[in-house]
Fold these 2 entries.
Entry 1:
Amino acid sequence: MAILKPNKFNRIFSFDHFAALVLVLFVGSLALLLGAVVSYLDYHSFPAIFRNPDIMFALRLSLWTASASALLAVMVAVPVGYVLSRFKFPGRFLFDAVVDIPIVLPPVVMGLCLLVFFRTAPGQAIEGAGFRFVYRQAGIVLAQFFTVTPYAIRTVKAAFDHLDPRVEMVARTLGYTPGRVFWRVSLPMIRNSIIAGGVIAWAVAIGLFGPMMILVGTTRQRTEVLATSIYLELSVGRVQTALAIALLMIAIAMGALTIFKKFGGGRFFS
Amino acid sequence: MLKVDNLSISYPEFYLESLSFEVDDGEYFVLFGPTGSGKTVLFELIAGLRRPMTGEIHINGRNLTRTDPAYRRVGYVPQDLALIPFKTVWQNVAFGLYSKTFRPAAENRRQETEEIARRVSEILEKLKIGHLAKRLPAHLSGGEKQRVALGRALVVRPDIMLLDEPLSALDEGTGNDLMREIKALHRQFGTTTLHICHRREEMRYLADRVAVMRDGAIVRTGYPEEV
């Protein structure tokens, strides 16, 4: 029987080598882009942003709004991820697809949807009842929440998909009701994925720009967040300040990604 | 006593057809048969993890066919053991004793805690895993995990024990050791036990009576030497 041998080209340049080359090229391109920001930056500009009260306001607003929307996202993601993972019901695939819409939708469209909603009768009724979002800081949280929650849902759902149902079944035979099994077994087992979902939601929220511009605008000391700060600084020609803010956001994003991966975020795309 | 009467269930991938049998108090009853004959599904029905289409399950004279698994007082050791990965050996074994069904009777919280500690310590020592109490399941060998799963089911003093191939994943030496210990524990506790196995020597050593299952039905019951 003839033995198939790899030809000379395949021995030197296998698919593994090709894949590794693509990886190096892609990571290299990203590093070049990030490096461009760093190399172009005047290093006096970076510490200066921490003395700028407008930028500090935007930083504080970004941190608390992203934290609030990530917390809300996780609170929604746990029950939604559980239902989508565990139950078969008519229209499940439709629900699953609709949940993902904000991931594929341009964020600016989400902002536009929200703005238009608050011009309709239900939206006016909500604002009339005292829950005001348009051009308000609460609107930032709302826009972030609708945009980032699908990321948290995906992470939590993937964790429920990977959970061994036998552990829950045995817990049921040991005298626990479904509710108590959920709180005492299922939820602690996916704790890391919940944290990872919250972190990715937070990281996406802090970088959002489009929906904020549409729904709340960008007013200094009122509705300005870091992403809109970059736009404002560029529009008045302060490129170095914009670059310094960008560097700060890169650092925040990398920190969040590190935490995300540490807590098992790798399952996100499974 | 366990009485299974005319039990049927049908799914596209498996079925059980009109199963009827009885297991006496304290009896060691082995279900013997090839993979896919419906033995695990039968265990899940007895434990209440699946609902039968027809038939009834009685344990100690009570009809438990529609009873929630939490209240059946059935100790279940599945094939993959299903230990809770974030709990230590001690916490895994004690887990059932904190439920409403299996909580020890006591006058106050302190007495209850002491009773739980006493029962867990006792079962860990009997199973020779007392020294592993603080370890997580990920840091245990196959035999040690098997002992923890057994301890978790035994400590709650169930009316019926269901052991789904408890020795199949172990090497021959460890499996034989555990087989002897299971026999000794059964003699000591006298719990009515159903045990799924594939190996003839395991069946002959453990069983008081045997049921042979094939294609979702019991094709024969009898004493080990007859089957």
Note: The domain at 38-269 of chain A is CATH 1.10.3720.10 (MetI-like fold).
Entry 2:
Amino acid sequence: MSNINQAGSADEQQAPGALVEWEQRVAGYAGEPPFVEEPQRLSAIAAALKDAAIAAAIAAALFLFFIGFRTDIAIGGLDLTTRWQAFGTAIVVVFVGRLLFRILLWRPATKAGTRPLLLRAFGSGEGTPLSEHFARHSKSVGVVALVAAVLYPVIILALFPMKDKQFIDLGVLVLTYIMLGWGLNIVVGLAGLLDLGYVAFYAVGAYSFALFAQFFEVGFWFALPIAGILAACWGLILGFPVLRLRGDYLAIVTLAFGEIIRVVLLNWYTFTGGPNGISGIPDPTFFGLEFARGDDNLPGLLGIGYDSAYKQAYFFYIILALAMITNLVTLRLRKLPLGRAWEALREDEIACRSLGINTTNTKLTAFAIGAMFGGFAGAFFATRQGFISPESFTFMESALILAIVVLGGLGSQMGVVIASIVMIGGFELFRDFAEYRMLIFGLLMVIIMVWRPRGLIATREPSAILKERQTISADMVAQGEGH
Amino acid sequence: MSASIKDNVSEPGRWDESPVLTVENLTMRFGGLVAVDDLSFNVGRGDITALIGPNGAGKTTVFNCVTGFYKPTEGRIIMRHGSAISDAEVRKLTESGEQSMSTAEGAIFLLERMPDFCISRDAKVARTFQNIRLFGGMTVLENLLVAQHNALMAASGFTIGGIFNLPGFRKARQKSIDKAVYWLEHIRLKERADEPAAALPYGDQRRLEIARAMCTDPQLLCLDEPAAGLNPRESSELNELLQFIRSEAGTSVLLIEHDMGVVMEISDHVVVLDYGEKISDGSADYVRNDPSVIAAYLGVEDEEVAEAEAEAAAAAAAAAAAASAAGQTMSGGEPAGEQETKP
């Protein structure tokens, strides 16, 4: 009881001890008498079958008129045809679908013993199995993902010689969004400041490089740090007016900031080229060597022959390196006082101030560092496209990056990767079904938000551990301003 | 040097000899409402000072002024580091218009001029909150590390050195963890160091918040109702913790409390507020027997004050006898008369 007050007298220590005993005795009497619960007769499979049968019956009632009958315009009125085969198929699809859904995914309000197969396979214990699974193996998952990313262009070049350029380009696109997601994650996920205008920093980075290349003929590697620094400066410029804002107001001002940058780029015709954009942005070199035809250039010197896919692969490795720098810096910052102060700021700003943390500087560094990575990504975007215009930096982009962060799980690095692959990769793969693309996209977002309202990987990893690592479930973690 | 408060409700005491904090003529108005009216009191170095009063008396407003969360309408709040600080030095600082000044053997801070985070960082005044404000999604250990932010930030070379994990930072980090563990042992939460703070029971959260404030190395710890919502066992643990903080860490404590058991048992000095004005100021015994305090708490008519005073004196005598006999019992030897005074 009392190793605190060493100086306390013996009887002072005894009295609370007696109190503890008394409390424990009372606790022992409390509660309901023990009773054995009736074992559940209906097994999980039977319950699922019953549930699927009910769903099939409802489907049958609905589809009878929607699918079972068909009216065609015929001479003298309507002609009624029956389509029992389609009707039957629909019911079977509903039955099987519901059954699988029920067995594999959906968790009805029952005890832990009857948890669905897929969830049981993914993790142990109560709560959020998928997240826990990732949390426990986050390091190995990360390493596997990195190895897969490094090998991706090689595999693509070997397996799809015809479509290699397209697939590597898709990989570059996905990685660009992963990097943007990681950059925004600093502001939204760690510091908890909702930023709807992140694309502005992407634009600042892209235009910094494009304009430097146009006016001073500098190369990508020289312009890259400048683009990052300029974007960070713009992060500070945005940061100052929004320091005192919270919630919706913060969101609106950052949204406006993103639009202001775009409108300025659009209208400052003499400097930025306005809607015509800037073209002829140079490609990045490899220690002064270019990826172009000719014996003096890199493919010629290596003797591998020119293939535009090689240039794509080079882009892929550049963005992979940039993204990994973003990731490693973020992971490192989380364990430093600055990153911990960001998270504390997200949890409780007033408590931060009471502990002597300068919240102004802390917020500004979050905006600046997040913006800096946006600027790097922007410079890369400019060199990859070779042409930029304000069209590329609309609010839709901000919303997409924010959606990646939110769907992935605020503050989760792996969540951003998964969300980027699913959303950007999926988006591109469904390009053939152009008219259904937005439909599928919307449906996916609804499903994820219903299934996992705090994102795919919602658990938080502690930044310092005394004895054992415990992941923190999402419902304890505050979401910060504007959520 | 002695800054005794000259008014008719104060009992002079040792807190006037070398106060760590002096509140002078503090007035806080919200529009037409006067929350605190011309309040002056001293907080003695190494004392536990209690600020009590009925609900709405302005206690938390005083706290918010002292810790910089409100800018007082009028008044001066002086924080002294080091005991040998002359009135002339305080006057010099006040006239200079600066926020703080270092003297030969310490420093003076005028808290009413400082922003809130500087009061914690430079003037070393830490506080807790009436409704607990922990970082719920962070672990117990992380909460204590966030409190050491400024020391760690400097050690990490404002992040640059930290990114490369330089030896200086590694050493500072280990030191900060050691300090966190030291406090975790004293609030008996070491076993739960890796759990999220929001998962702790209420009493543990209260103690953790105090430990977090202590991790900022304060000279003055301001506690806003630390015993609120605690059961008798937890509040006796809290008493032990506060006495430990006073004796071992050498931190002066200023606390707001409604639990008279806690107040009367541990306070060296009690200041009573009612409707924003100070109605009594002195030792626990002096305040307990002050008729105006009894009147404020019970809301009696003037003629009943004398009667209440006699009753309280009897209760105090009984309580003193009971306390010496039983030591710490259920409510920490709370006198029956005071029990009723709780609003």
Note: Residues 289-325 of chain B form one domain.
